[in-house]
Design brief:
Blueprint lengths: L7 H21 L2 H4 L10 H15 L20 H13 L4 H21 L2 H5 L1 E2 L6 E2 H23 L5 H4 L2 H12 L1 H8 L7 E7 L4 E8 L2 E5 L14 E6 H8 L13 E4 L1 H9 L6
Parallel strand pairs: 3-6
Antiparallel strand pairs: 1-2, 3-4, 4-5, 6-7
Helix pairs in contact: 1-5, 1-7, 3-4, 3-5, 3-7, 7-9
InterPro entries: DinB/YfiT-like, Maleyloyr_isom, MDMPI_metal-binding
GO molecular function: metal ion binding
Protein name: Mycothiol-dependent maleylpyruvate isomerase metal-binding domain-containing protein
Length: 284
């Protein structure tokens, strides 16, 4: 089992920054905006923050509250994690926006103190994460990804989106780092790229980067690069080119390729590229 080693200072700086961004964003919302439905089925803006409060509360050892109904019967609840999230959302739904924001500030203050005090051994220790067993540091990078995605879920429906000049931030880059790490599974398992495939994601815009994935024995693996050594190393067999922001919305299940006509380009084996993009959503 490969364990992801991540710098504690860098990850915590990114996590605390996205928490601060969410706090500032919440302070700008009107009462009506708090009740706006998001792209996440069944969730309003209020519910999105309630979900984040629930996750950080559980990480502080707070017991998940009971729900007033059987949440597994709700149409948008598909698994145990969805049911757990819904219990927190329903428990906090009665709070006024100011009370909810105060609750968010309180739990993130507690989390900041606990994480800052964590020693290096515990930071590197293997724990259960949404991506399987890995370091606690990897878990916190996943938390950056989750919080950053939800920040932009709120922005997308309240008219408070960021321009390109403000989109490139440390939390955004760390969220993309986490998404890049998942692309081996996306290409090999979800996208079913055949053995020998060398797939390049060519991400454009302010969050530009390249993600290369090689497939062998049915498994995709993120690799440092293709065709860069000059000694016969073959280049990619498929290149998928799209704006990095669009990539995050597709990989996070917030959008579909059909909503971005002409925004996704393919070179090489286009059939493989299209199948990967159709299965790019990897989140729970």
């Amino acid at each position: 089992m490969s364990i992801t080693a991540l710098d504690k200072t860098e990850i915590l700086d990114g996590l605390f920054a996205v928490w601060d961004d969410i706090t500032a964003l919440g302070g700008r919302l009107t009462d009506a905006q708090w009740q706006t439905p998001t792209e996440l089925p069944g969730w309003s803006v209020h519910d999105v923050l309630a979900h984040l409060i629930g996750i950080e509360s559980m990480l502080q050892g707070v017991e998940t509250p009971d729900a007033d109904i059987d949440v597994t019967t709700l149409e948008h609840v598909h698994n145990d994690i969805g049911a757990l999230n819904e219990r927190w959302i329903r428990a906090l739904r009665g709070l006024e926006p100011a009370e909810l924001l105060d609750r968010w500030r309180s739990v993130t203050d507690e989390r900041r103190a606990a994480l800052t005090a964590m020693n290096d051994e515990d930071w590197s220790a293997v724990t259960a994460t949404p991506a399987g067993p890995d370091s606690y540091g990897r878990f916190m990078r996943i938390r950056i990804f989750d919080c950053w995605m939800h920040e932009h879920d709120i922005r997308a429906v309240t008219g408070l989106t960021l321009g390109d000049d403000a989109l490139d931030t440390p939390p955004a880059r760390l969220a993309l780092d986490e998404m890049a790490a998942a692309m081996g599974r996306v290409v090999g398992k979800l996208g079913k790229a055949p053995d020998g495939s060398r797939v390049r994601f060519e991400l454009l815009g302010p969050l530009a980067r390249t993600i290369d994935v090689a497939v062998q024995d049915g498994r995709g693996r993120v690799v440092p690069g293709f065709g860069a050594t000059g000694d016969g190393d073959p280049g990619p067999t498929t290149v998928i080119s799209l704006d990095a922001w669009v990539f995050t919305r597709l990989a996070g299940g917030r959008s579909t390729p059909e909503r971005h006509p002409g925004a996704i380009g393919y070179r090489g084996d286009e059939a493989v590229g299209r199948r990967i993009v159709e299965n790019l959503n990897y989140v729970i």
